[in-house]
Amino acid sequence: MTALLASVRSLLEAERAVAGGCDWLDLKEPGAGALGAVPQAVAAVVAATYADRLPVSATIGDCWETPAVIPGKVASFTAAGVPWVKVGVLASRLAGDMAEALRAAVGEARGLIAVCFAEDPPTEAHVAALSALGLKGVMLDTANKNRGGLRQRLRPGEIAAFVAAARRHGLLTGLAGSLSAEDVAPLAALAPDYLGFRGALCEGGRAASLSEARVRALKSLLVPPHAPQSGSIHEEKSHGLA
After folding, report:
1. Can you give the C-alpha Rg of the chain in angstroms?
2. Which domain holds residue 181?
3. Closest Cα to residue 21, out of 43, 58, 54?
4. Residues 213 and 35 sit within 8 Å (Cβ to Cβ)
5. What is the model's pLDDT at position 230?
6. For the chain, what is the domain count?
7. HSE-up of residue 179 (Cα within 13 Å, Cβ side)
8. How far, in Å, CA of 112 to CA of 120, rounded?
9. Burial code of 35-57, b = ≥16 C-beta within 10 A, e = fewer?
10. Does some domain include residue 7?
11. 63 by DSSP, 3-state: which?
12. Catalytic status, residue 86
């Protein structure tokens, strides 16, 4: 079953997201960019509170143009106790300095996830290269949050091809990018490991406060009626999550 990832900026939002039934907590500061980083103190307290109950990840900031800083930022969040760290990657520049930075960053994290963008979508060769570097996951997102969501930026076949390529290469696979309730059914049908949300979970847009009720409503769209509740993404071993 596809899991629900909730992007949170604080312990209070994490508490609301978990109470609403989210499957994965992703630490992100929406006011600091597409992959804005929260303070490490926030990351540390959320990880200490929840990392033994469900997956916890953190984004390191919008630094895909300066790959040299990536390993150090990944190491900082790992030191704060965050098991999964997410790094923005421009697929067309996945060579040279970026490849070296990602290779070094892999050694700093339990699980490194590359966040690719609809503005520069990865091919299967890019997905294969990320897998070869030792990354554990890859996701597709949008860098610009003001130009439509993922399904407005890419055709259904392009999104499906990304999910299929990631699965062929053994990578944990996520989809995000200004997703709404209307996006759940068509994207969940592609069977990604998780769908990521921020704005749809907030009262008043992605910069506003996360709502427990909105998390619960979106979660209900991912859980078929009368479905068994066992076997969360945290328990799965096939992608190295356990």
Report:
1. 16
2. 3-222
3. 54
4. no
5. 40
6. 1
7. 26
8. 20
9. bbbbebebbbbbbeebbeebbbb
10. yes
11. coil
12. yes
* Backbone torsions φ then ψ of 167, nearest 5 degrees: -65, -40
Active-site position among 73, 86, 136, 219: 86
DSSP 33: -
Q: 197 lies in a domain?
A: yes
Helix axes 40-50, 11-19, angle to 10 degrees: 30
CA 167 to chain centre: 16
Rounded to a whole number of angstroms, the distance between the first and last alpha carbons of the chain is 16
Place of tokens 């328990």: 235
Whether 37 contacts 73, CB under 8 Å = yes
Q: What is the CATH number of the domain that holds 159?
A: 3.20.20.380
Q: Which two tokens stand for residue 177?
A: 């990018």
Whether residue 192 lies inside any domain: the answer is: yes
pTM over 0.85: yes
Q: 3-state SS of the chain: helix, strand, coil percent to 5?
A: 40, 15, 45
- Averaged over successive runs of 10 residues, the pLDDT of the chain (242 residues) comes to 97 98 98 96 98 98 97 98 98 95 96 97 97 98 92 97 98 97 97 97 92 98 64 43 37
Q: Does residue 231 fall inside a structural domain?
A: no
Listed residue (219, 172, 176) closest to 199, CA to CA: 176
- Other C-beta atoms closer than 10 Å to the C-beta of 236 total 15
- Classify strands 3-8 and 24-27 as parallel, antiparallel or unpaired: parallel
CA–CA separation, 119 vs 121, rounded Å? 6
Pair of tokens at residue 157: 């076949």
Do 193 and 176 form a contact (C-beta atoms < 8 A)?
Answer: no
pLDDT of residue 227: 53
